[in-house]
TrEMBL record:
Upper taxonomic lineage: Eukaryota, Viridiplantae, Streptophyta, Embryophyta, Tracheophyta
Boundaries of every F-box domain copy: 1-44
The protein's name: F-box domain-containing protein
PROSITE patterns hit by this protein: FBOX
PANTHER family attached to this UniProt entry: BNACNNG10540D PROTEIN, F-BOX PROTEIN CPR30-LIKE
Pfam family, one: F-box
InterPro entries for this protein: F-box-assoc_dom_typ1 (IPR006527), F-box-assoc_interact_dom (IPR017451), F-box-like_dom_sf (IPR036047), F-box_dom (IPR001810), SCF_F-box_component (IPR050796)
Amino acid sequence: MLSLLPIELEEEVLSRVPVTCLRKLRSTCKKWNTLTKGESFCSLKRKQRKQGTATEVVMVLDCRVSLMSVHVGDLLNPTMERIGNLRAADGLKISNILHCEGFYLLCITTTQEKTELLLWNPPLGQARWIEPSKSHHEYEKYALGYGHDEEDTKVLRFVRVRQTTPRRPIIVTQNLCEFEVYSLKSNSWKVVDDIISPDWEIPHGHGCVSLKGNIYWYAHQEISVHYSGPIPKDNPDFLLSFDFKRERLGPRLPLPFNGCVIDTVTLSSVREEQLAVLFLTYDGAVGSVIKIWITNKIEPDQVSWGNLLLACVIERVTRPPWMMQHPLSFFVDEDNKVAVVLDRIRGRSHFAYVIGDNGYLKTLDLGQAMDITSFQLLCPYLPSSLQIP
């Protein structure tokens, strides 16, 4: 019997079970339930993941969360295969998902009346509802990170609104700035009141990324209310960070390019150590141009960028960046010098770009889009024994 095997061999056998089947497996044996939630078992899964030829990622399409196996080592035949579906709660209609280095997911469901937050650890099958501090605000954003260690999980809620009259004389009708931090340990929200009204804004549809517990966004300089022309192409853009240890914003950090309002910029983490940035700009002559860089060093108060990692031209396939309702989601396989980018073709079909060296590009069809307004997410999957208290 399996239960008579040495613990190490028992873990080896159970580690071959797909993560999507672990919930059923745990319900059959109390010992297996404990073993598959332990750090030794999760470390073994992480080791297998690093040694394997495939990369396991969490992918969200049409509000459905799936575990995927991505093979990009052979660029002649790259593939994405669904291992199985992950379910956080019955009947949960997900509006957005944030991830913290792959081990925690924050599921956000939003209606016109309210916002609901569900913290979820898929490998352990654990979930916990978080009560929002205030009623739903249409411009609110959330971010997930941690303080001094991974057990000090925190959620940031912030609202930045500046509305003006459409005609001169320009009058600011609403100028709202709110920052709040939720601590999982204390189960309470705290107002961050030392942040003055910022002179920057995060473009609509641009998300954030969690890296080493801190949060990073793409932002640009806020346009003066007295400026009457179009948004200038040389308007400064930069990275912003939020340090959960000190619960404060960091300084503006430079980017390896200079974008403008019609460009799309999105971020991703690499090996939970570095930050990758994807820059998508539209050239009417050739189509959309994608460029990707990775940092050499990244902290809340400093950054240095490496050379351009990947670049390619996508002709007549993707829509111009300003037509996108949600930012592109992507991950980078630095060892193989390959990136996988999620997108939709005119809202009808999900697909992924596989981008390689020397302008290599291949498109993988992921099927028809059932919900053309839903967001897409692609993030690394890291088995973790971190319990949700």
